[in-house]
Amino acid sequence: MIYFDNSATTKIDPSVLATYDKVATEIWGNPSSLHKMGDRAHQLLEASRKQIADLLGVKQHEIFFTSGGTESNNTAIKGTAFQKREFGKHIITSSVEHASVANAFTSLQNLGYRVTRLPVDKDGRVNVNDLRNAIDSDTTLVSIMGVNNEIGTIQPIEEISDLLSNYPTIQFHVDNVQALGKNIWDKVFTPRVDLTSLSAHKFHAPRGIGVLYKKEGKMLTPLHDGGGQEKGLRSGTENLPAIAGMAKAIRLLLENEPEKAAKEEAIKEKIIDYLQDKPGIKIFSPANAVFAPHILCFSLEGIRGETLVHTLEDQDIYVSTTSACASKTADEASTLVAMRVDDKIATSAIRLSFDETNTLAEADQFIEVFDKIYHHFAKINHLGEN
Amino acid sequence: MIKYTEVMIRYGELSTKGKNRKDFIGRLAGNVTKVLRDFPEIEIHPRHDRMHIVLNGAPFEQIDKRLKKVFGIQTYSPAIKVPRTLKDIEETSLALMQETFKDGMTFKINTKRADHRFEYDTNQLNNLVGDYLYDHMDNLKAEMKHPDLVLRIEVRSDAIYISNQMLHGIGGMPVGTAGKAVMMLSGGIDSPVASYLAMKRGVEIEMVHFFSPPYTTEKALAKAKELTGILANYCGKINFIAVPFAEIQETIKEKIPEGYLMTVQRRFMLQLADRIRAKRGGLAIFNGESVGQVASQTLQSMVAINDVTTTPVIRPVATMDKTEIIDRAEKIGTFDLSIQPFEDCCTIFAPPRPKTKPKLDKARAYEDRLDAEGMIQRAMDSIEVTPIYPNQKFLDDKAQEDKDLL
């Protein structure tokens, strides 16, 4: 089995699961309880928070636990929009965001907010000048992802940060669900970033847990009201087993980060070397500094992405199409469509996403299997015949 | 890295003579033994002029940390024992100097011969070793009056001892030389500092701590014990006496007018401390009161409370400002633990408006309403004594388990 779909989710690490299990069965008090079982749980909760803060180089009280990337994104975006509605109702994002960002903006649009969705270039990158032109006195929020989940583009967060340093009242959110542990963190998490989202199941921790980083002093209107957990920002009994598991997973993820990222990049390069110059194949995520090391998106002309996914699945190789909705309604939510890639090409794209557990041997195996598939379809579609 | 083989300890307050001196040295040896008890390989030889510790392989860096906190040590020097040959003296001297010498420093050699049969006399040795060092090191500069480094070479009949560091101890008197007393330890910032100051003057203290379950938590008790563990670094061991106080507090709450709740509670605490002192052969009571800091610590309150005993009540921090006390607590290492917010028995049942100027006759009259003797006896019957050793942990902080999990 070859699993090249790590941007969808990752396999839980056994030692992370062991932590989850131990906490769930032994430290199961409610962190808010006054008795010693509560105390014990509270201590572990704060130790987890501190570990994550230290690993990310931020303050302990800037780390908030949520149910995952979707909730972190919604809290950051709607929380900012609601909090700052008296100061302005213009909010800005890109046209290549994950659905949890894009649709949060759509909801706000329906509530009467003015939304600007910035266009992208052929690499899927926003242009800082477009952002500069879009900002006006009503702008309260800019939300741009760190690493695109479909093709792996690294957005120019550093340049955007420079621009936004002139607009201190605009809250800057970066969806970094795809970006942690890929040796590019400094590029996507600058000191100007006010809010950022992480999702634990993208790095071998359980589902249903994530982080929202909120810079000291920044205000958000909570979306979940209740018992006042997480300093009132996110009520609800803390998911301590998952939180502890996530804290451990982040520690493991960041150990030897450069080596791991280099390994992923080597796999990506090897497959690109093979795909390069094959008639009918178009690569959207080349191996260069504008793209993350772990995502490779390409299309095979004339074959729908879905078909390719199932063909590879038959050989026990697991990959993704880029965006499920693109094949149905090619009008939004697809990075490739936003890049103005021809509709036919966009629907024939697949995404390979690697992590540090993948090997070069798997890349070789993939190439061997894919080569047969390629020749089969190339023949049918007369690729490279003129 | 040089491996030291011995430590020479020089005593403080050498004015003490005769039997007192013997007691001083005996106590100090006992206290040093206690703080080094987890290094069984160490030998301790107390002598009339200094104490000699043979490390037998124990690491000096760790011994050093412990000795820094023992009262009665003026200065001490780690030394290396070498055979009685010039070659050994020269080589070890060079190694020591190379480790401690920094450019621009001055030095001198100070040879002492306890054994005059040695083949070189003092001056010869000074010159020979000095020449050897000059031959092997650059930028050395001798200075007789105020050198930065003194290389001490001591010739004894069994061997030669070489050292070049003189480290400062904390001085004071060995704990125990001034007799025994009880210390009223609450768990706040002040009483640990008062404990330290009592021990500094040689007083052996036993902690008296009042606890009132279920009004106070187990954590408050554990915190007081852990504070005692920090203070035990300065003497090796401290007995901790826990006194149950809930019955007395409840009775007082029920029967005494609000304005005098605090005064009468304090009178009971002092009586209990005094009973414990008498039972355990103490001579005085120490506490952490600071004049005027809170309602129970005004001079008027002290009059109304101190009334219950003629035993000396000594208040080492009486005239210190809070900031000075905090400063001390940070140096002693008790501050961070002291400020942990667990309710202690001084804060529960604290009336909203305690009298800052209670009247002695009223305090006495109110107290007469109670069965004081019965309550005191019941409390005395339930006291618990726990010996506490340096850095013993009682607050189950689970930090290690957290670390393993994460």
From TrEMBL, chain A:
Pfam family, any one: Aminotran_5
- UniProt keyword RNA-binding, yes or no: no
What cofactor(s) does the depicted protein rely on?
Answer: pyridoxal 5'-phosphate
Residue spans making up a coiled coil are none
InterPro entries registered for this protein in UniProt: Aminotrans_V_dom, Cysteine_dSase, PyrdxlP-dep_Trfase, PyrdxlP-dep_Trfase_major, PyrdxlP-dep_Trfase_small
- This protein's source sits in the domain of life called Bacteria
- Domain Aminotransferase class V residues, every copy: 2-366
Query: What Gene Ontology molecular function terms does this protein carry?
Result: cysteine desulfurase activity; transaminase activity
Q: Which UniProt keywords apply?
A: Aminotransferase, Pyridoxal phosphate, Transferase
The cross-references to SUPFAM superfamilies, in alphabetical order and at most eight, read: PLP-dependent transferases
Enzyme Commission code(s) on record: 2.8.1.7
| Top-tier EC class | transferase
Q: What is this protein called?
A: Aminotransferase, class V
Say which species the protein is native to. Answer: Lactobacillus amylolyticus DSM 11664
Which gene is transcribed and translated to give this protein?
Answer: iscS
TrEMBL record, chain B:
Q: Name one Pfam family in it.
A: THUMP
What residues bind ATP, as annotated?
Answer: M184, L185, H209, F210, R266, G288, Q297
Recorded GO molecular functions are:
ATP binding; CCA tRNA nucleotidyltransferase activity; tRNA binding; tRNA-uracil-4 sulfurtransferase activity
Its BP terms in the Gene Ontology are:
thiamine biosynthetic process; thiamine diphosphate biosynthetic process; thiazole biosynthetic process; tRNA 4-thiouridine biosynthesis
What's the EC number here? Answer: 2.8.1.4
Which EC class is the enzyme in? transferase
Keyword list, A-Z: ATP-binding, Cytoplasm, Nucleotide-binding, RNA-binding, Thiamine biosynthesis, Transferase, tRNA-binding
Domain (THUMP) spans 61-166
Q: Which PROSITE patterns does this chain map to?
A: THUMP (PS51165)
Q: Does the keyword Transmembrane apply?
A: no
Q: Which reaction does it catalyse?
A: [ThiS sulfur-carrier protein]-C-terminal Gly-Gly-AMP + S-sulfanyl-L-cysteinyl-[cysteine desulfurase] + AH2 = [ThiS sulfur-carrier protein]-C-terminal-Gly-aminoethanethioate + L-cysteinyl-[cysteine desulfurase] + A + AMP + 2 H(+); [ThiI sulfur-carrier protein]-S-sulfanyl-L-cysteine + a uridine in tRNA + 2 reduced [2Fe-2S]-[ferredoxin] + ATP + H(+) = [ThiI sulfur-carrier protein]-L-cysteine + a 4-thiouridine in tRNA + 2 oxidized [2Fe-2S]-[ferredoxin] + AMP + diphosphate
UniProt pathway annotation: Cofactor biosynthesis; thiamine diphosphate biosynthesis
Q: Where in the cell is it found?
A: Cytoplasm
**Entry's Gene Ontology cellular component terms:** cytosol
Stated role: Catalyzes the ATP-dependent transfer of a sulfur to tRNA to produce 4-thiouridine in position 8 of tRNAs, which functions as a near-UV photosensor. Also catalyzes the transfer of sulfur to the sulfur carrier protein ThiS, forming ThiS-thiocarboxylate. This is a step in the synthesis of thiazole, in the thiamine biosynthesis pathway. The sulfur is donated as persulfide by IscS.
Query: What HAMAP family does the annotation carry?
Result: ThiI (MF_00021)
Q: Which family does it belong to?
A: Belongs to the ThiI family.
Recorded hits in NCBIfam families, A to Z, give:
tRNA uracil 4-sulfurtransferase ThiI
Name listed for the protein in its UniProt record: Probable tRNA sulfurtransferase
Source species of the chain: Lactobacillus amylolyticus DSM 11664
What's the name of its gene? thiI
